[in-house]
Design goal:
Structural class: mainly alpha
Strand content: 5-15%
Strand order of the largest sheet: 2-1-6
Helix content: 40-55%
Radius of gyration: 19 Å
Distance between the termini: 19 Å
Largest sheet: 3 strands, antiparallel
Number of strands: 6
Number of helices: 12
């Protein structure tokens, strides 16, 4: 049930879960990426790309929601298809292998894959750079620091023993150094490239106003605050400051509950996926003791309610019900700018499931 006492999360969650079943029937063994806003037809990938873990995670959330053995088998089979990513050079293994396995609960196969992934990512940690590089699996230069290479990676690495915990902290704090800087206010740099002569240099893409940049980093900080390293108590204060900075920026009147895909284009497309990520991060922060816990919970529920009431298709919409519309894959390339996105669906489902009491948000 929602923190505010209302019953609204239940029908929204039911609609999203029903949409997962329809999507599963439509895509078969492939992985959904984004769907057309009118007919709901999915663009799919064979290996899942960086979003494959969110589809596996959605199937696990549905299996937990229905309690059906067939749904559980389907989720396990999808997670098994993520195995090649263990050996793939990309920091997005955090997104793929954490979110594709963490919702599985006590499933042995998912736990085994998560453990292998944690140690593989740990082996990619670069001590000189102080982080796990972006990698070259998705194209482009390998020595990048990107904010979307941090969420998922933090809790994934933390499962690789003491060395993993230390690497997770270093990876996160190095990204905070690079992407947030040390000045006052938020001057986010979502991606930087390492040059042997010039050091770290900001990349033009994604742009500084990229909506998911702030959301991804806030999610990673929230996960670190939920899993404090007892050997480094001083880190908590810095993480709390980063969380306040990142969440306070989202609370500005100009930001709204659903941000623009690029703050430099306030009249451009929105990004409901960034809003859903932010809501989950705030739900996690609400579990961290402190003066902002209640405000985080209140804003998280407000965001999720706005998504459910204003952006989720209903039975009389003329579209397949349960679609989270107005997600923006890439505003700069004008790619899928008002679509249903698989990771937007995942984070909306996770947030609704947490409000409904179906999952423990601190463990996913």
């Amino acid at each position: 049930m929602s923190a505010g006492g209302g019953a609204w999360p239940a029908p929204a969650l039911a609609a999203v879960m029903a949409r997962v079943a329809v999507t599963a029937e439509a895509v078969g063994p492939r992985f959904p990426l984004y769907a057309e806003p009118d007919g709901g037809r999915w663009t799919t990938t064979g290996r899942g790309s960086w979003t494959g873990g969110f589809w596996a995670g959605l199937l696990w959330l549905r299996a937990r929601y229905t309690g059906d053995a067939a749904d559980r088998r389907a989720a396990a089979a999808c997670t098994a298809r993520l195995e090649p990513w263990v050996r793939t050079d990309t920091a997005t293994r955090g997104l793929i292998l954490w979110y594709g396995t963490a919702p599985a609960g006590d499933d042995a196969g998912a736990a085994e894959l998560r453990g292998r992934g944690a140690h593989a990512v740990l082996s990619a940690y670069d001590r000189e750079l102080g982080l796990v590089p972006w990698g070259d699996a998705l194209g482009g230069p390998r020595l990048l620091a990107r904010v979307d290479g941090v969420p998922g990676t933090v809790p994934l690495l933390a499962g690789a023993g003491p060395q993993g915990v230390a690497a997770a902290a270093a990876h996160l704090h190095r990204h905070l150094d690079l992407c947030l800087g040390t000045g006052r206010g938020l001057a986010l740099r979502p991606a930087l490239r390492f040059d042997a002569a010039a050091g770290w240099q900001p990349c033009a893409d994604p742009p500084p106003g990229w909506s998911r940049g702030r959301a991804w980093l806030l999610l990673a900080v929230a996960d670190a605050l939920l899993r404090p390293d007892p050997a480094a108590p001083g880190q908590a204060a810095r993480l709390a400051e980063a969380a306040e900075l990142l969440s306070a920026e989202g609370e500005s009147p100009a930001a709204g509950l659903v941000p623009a895909a690029d703050t430099a284009r306030p009249d451009g497309p929105l990004d409901t996926s960034a809003a859903a990520i932010t809501a989950v991060a705030l739900l996690k922060l609400a579990r961290v003791p402190g003066p902002r816990a209640a405000a985080s919970a209140h804003r998280a529920e407000a965001i999720l309610r706005r998504l459910a009431e204003s952006h989720l298709t209903g039975p009389d919409s003329g579209r397949p019900p349960g679609m989270l519309l107005d997600g923006c894959y890439d505003a700069g390339k004008e790619l899928a700018v008002r679509n249903e996105l698989v990771w937007g669906d995942f984070f909306l489902a996770l947030g609704l499931a947490a409000l409904h009491g179906a999952v423990d948000i601190t463990r996913i």
